[in-house]
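Late entry, evening session. Most of the bench is empty. Finally got around to the prediction I had been postponing all week. Sequence below, unchanged from the version circulated by S.P.
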Amino acid sequence: MSIAAPAAGRLDPFDLLEIDALLSEEERLVRDTVRGFVRNRVLPGIEEWFERGVFPRELVAEIAQLGLLGMHLKGYGCAGASAVSYGLACQELEAGDSGFRSFVSVQGSLSMFPIWKFGSEDQKREWLPPMARGELIGCFGLTEPDFGSDPGGMRTSARRRGTDWVLNGNKLWITNGSIADLAIVWARAEDGIRGFIVPTGSHGFTARDVHRKISLRASVTSELVLEDVVVPASALLPGAQGLKAPLSCLNEARYGIVWGAMGAARACYEAALEYARTRVQFGRPIAAFQLTQRKLVEMVVEIEKGMLLALHLGRLKDQERLRPEQVSVGKLNNVRAALEIAREARSILGANGITLEYPVIRHMNNLESVYTYEGTNEVHTLAIGEAITGISAFR
């Protein structure tokens, strides 16, 4: 989407509050680099990929060359970028399509992060460098068919057999599942929930894609089936014990969503603004009508608020002060706002808004999934409720 720069003396309709001035030169460089990649490599093909329901794996090497895989991790071939830079990258990727932000998020925050955080030194050296280069793709096996918002009830089991571990169970709604080379699988052992690095070529491991999706079509979603999958003792993540370990990984991914949702919202707003300026009805552009202007104003106000919230959370994360409940505030607010912005943008585009000629319906459908995954709207509401009342509503 290309919109003319504002005339001299006018506010920028895409940076109304001059948030750009709050970013460092390095942060702007990261944002602009990823934005260029999305413009040149993602947007030309996204309509076809979405319509066909495929993820273009051929772009993984280019994504890796930009340093986006595990970019917020330090060492082992990772870029060691700031949390704000990582957030800005997520924003630009999701402005292209949620499927691309999901891929980078699952690879870096859900697959590489647990190895980086909970793995042994040997595991880090073996797995992280090729994952950062995009040579190995990971997925995160936590959610089960009967246990989504309540992962503590998981049935997937891990039992010892000599020095090995034997895994049995099912995982569902797993991004990257069938294209992954390794899965981070969470299972219930005698001493609690443990995490394992499981090569997807292991005997008894099967990944089955979820078909007939209307949302996140340019993303791979799978069911993982583990039937007596045997892994060595070296597959166990030694520092991960208990439910807090996988939940901390989810918190990393949720942080990226806080930014990413605003990227999708911005893309919808840009499309609606350009359309409203050029679509003529009753002898003048529909942007001249009060009701349309009100919709556009509400969109940009929510985007600017969401961006300020994301930036504040990013600064807290860079200071190692960010709490999970604060991430819940960001995820709850920004995804909810983005979905409403997408719906309003669709109304401005009228019938044109339901076609893939414009990005709005694609983002709107994707956001329906983002609204639910990495913690539903209701779960984040209750997490914040517990934070402010001191009383858990879950048990």
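Two things to note before I forget:
The chain is about 50% helix and 15% strand.
Residues 41 and 200 are 29 Å apart (CA to CA).
Will write this up properly tomorrow.
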